[in-house]
Design a protein that fits this description.
This protein is of the alpha+beta class. The protein is built from three helices and four strands, in the order H-E-E-H-E-E-H. The protein has a four-stranded antiparallel beta sheet, with helices on one face. The longest helix has 15 residues, at 71-85. The mean pLDDT is 90.
Length: 88
Amino acid sequence: ALPISRAVRERPEIELLRADGGWTAVLRVPRVRSEEEWALALLARDVVVHPGHFYDFAEEAYLVVSLLPETRVFEDGISRLMEIAAGT
């Protein structure tokens, strides 16, 4: 399984949307903060994501992550996202 798939299984409040391919993954995250607040909190931890409204998602809260970084970099970023979701 992809690192992102394993990570979201451990955090049921985060949902990985199904995709048929591509270079990005879309996550539905808890609406405890806005997409921009999620993105800024992650940026403060050196993780870059795009808020869903950049991709015309009509409602909150979605994050779009690139699948192109090296595996270790990607796993570190997903780990930081999960830490923020857990409130740590």
